[in-house]
Amino acid sequence: MSEGEVTQAFAATFVDELARSGLRHVCVAPGSRSAPLAMAFARHPSVKVWVHIDERSAAFFALGLAKAQEWPVALLCTSGTAAAEFHPAVLEASYSRTPLLVLTADRPPELRDVGANQAVDQSRLYGSAPRWFFDAGLPDDEPAAPRRWRRLAARALVETRGEVPGPVHLNLPFREPLSPKPGRVPRAVPVDADPLWFWRAPTQPSEELVDRIATALARADRPLLVAGEMRDGARLRHALDALLTRLDAPLLAEPTSQLRRRAGLGVVESYDALLRDASWARAHVPDLVLRLGAPPTSKALNQFLLRYHPRTILIDEAGGWRDPDLLAAEIVRCDPLPLLERLEGKLREGDGIWQHVWRDASATAQAALDRKLYQSPLHEGHVVRALASELPEPATVFAGSSLAIRDVDMFWPGAAPGVRFLANRGASGIDGLVSTGLGAAAADAGNPTVLLLGDLSLYHDMNGLWAAKRHGVRAVIVVLDNNGGGIFDYLPAAQHADVFEELFTTPLGLRLEDVALLYDLYFCAVTDPGDLPYALERALLADRSTLVCARFSREQSLAGHQACWAAVTEALR
């Protein structure tokens, strides 16, 4: 498609999704830059267009419609000072808690800050008044673009009706041509799914909500439970166990969900390795996913769900829209505990066959990983397995970003109930990891805390080690020392050998024994897998913080991971 055709497709699809989501009225002030959306609104049979010459009047007219109907009304204008005329009504909508969807067309990026006509800064034009602001950027023709357009429209309407209703501002830049060719009426990109279903249950889930989800689970032949990061996930354990006695569903829980437990019902520890086998993944596609908490860490799991796109129900009490791949057809914002407890009573006991298929495959994968690790030189997988074996309970594991958190997800078997997993997965940066881990250790001084970090992460927050001595914080700091950023070996940049080492892996050449001496830490270096248990045991019993350095090359790490995945594939055959 040409750029103009993409713009027209966006406008038609965006407006169609607004209409599917319940929008019935839009107030339009005439203008050029807003032409794609104005035409799409005018041609949609489900939306009534109210034209106003004056933007200020249009905005207050829309406000009155929304107040009287207690339902969102859209408001559209061109770029420049036209958008500023909406401001008084936006303020009133904010303070009177009136749902209003404000759509401001805008110049494309290349016409901003260069003296172009009718180009003003429209970013957050209305300050703190909107409940949500988003600059959508220019429409593109990527395969997933129509799904993004529809989700933007659906979310915008939901946000106007949040816990505190009010205005939402979407800034929508367009390039010329702004109108289709004469005689051509652009069509919305069709969709084969129902409109986004959103439910907010601030206290107890309603009977309607419980029945809806229970019905979906009962009708599914291959349901799947996916649990991402939840610091308080441990409180869901009993409710999930009760549910999984009736629901024939595997549970794919990453360690930071606090739900990957030894003997936990339905728990599949090796899902990352299983889903790296394309043939096995293709044969085990779910028809429904019930997701709890943050998006999964595992790339293999995310790609699996994105590729096959099963119907997904997201239960996330934290707010926000933690659905980066736009997979959720239904989003439930509520405390998952009472919902899970009530679901169990609505379901008949299943035969457990689907759950056992996944668990048997996981057991096969675990055995294959153990055999391959026994035969392989030291790499991250050995360290994670040794930690899982030696760590007492209760204890805390703080996993660093980049490879560390992914290796915990890949290699940690079912954890003891008293082991808690923490990580900085909000922004997923490598800065401040030492200090965050030591802060967690200080909060639970009576029990062991292990920091599992890469050498680059340690270096990035090396000053944080000062707190261990200054405040008497005791922790075990296990460093995966592969001399640089090993995660880049798994990314496309690795194919550019002429610049790869200098720009990406950035080898440190850091002597960690000198770091330990500087900060008065005990030190132990390990280069053989067989030495890990003793080193970890001593570190866990030490009277002050210990730095355990597991040394291996990046080549060793990459080859070790690939060998483990190949071993699982071979075992599954």
Structure explained in plain terms:
41% of the residues lie in helices and 16% in strands. Helix 1 (3-20) crosses helix 2 (35-43), helix 1 crosses helix 6 and helix 8 (237-246) packs parallel to helix 12. With 573 residues, the chain is of the alpha/beta class. Keywords: Magnesium, Manganese, Menaquinone biosynthesis, Metal-binding, Thiamine pyrophosphate, Transferase. Residues 11-124 form the Thiamine pyrophosphate enzyme N-terminal TPP-binding domain.
Overall form: globular
CATH class of the largest domain: Alpha Beta
Number of helices: 22
Gap between N and C termini, in Å?
Answer: 44 Å
Major pleated sheet: 6 strands, parallel
Average pLDDT across residues?
94
Task: Briefly characterize the structure.
The chain is of the alpha/beta class and 573 residues long.
Distinctive features:
573 residues, Rossmann fold, 3 domains, globular, six-stranded parallel β-sheet, 18 strands
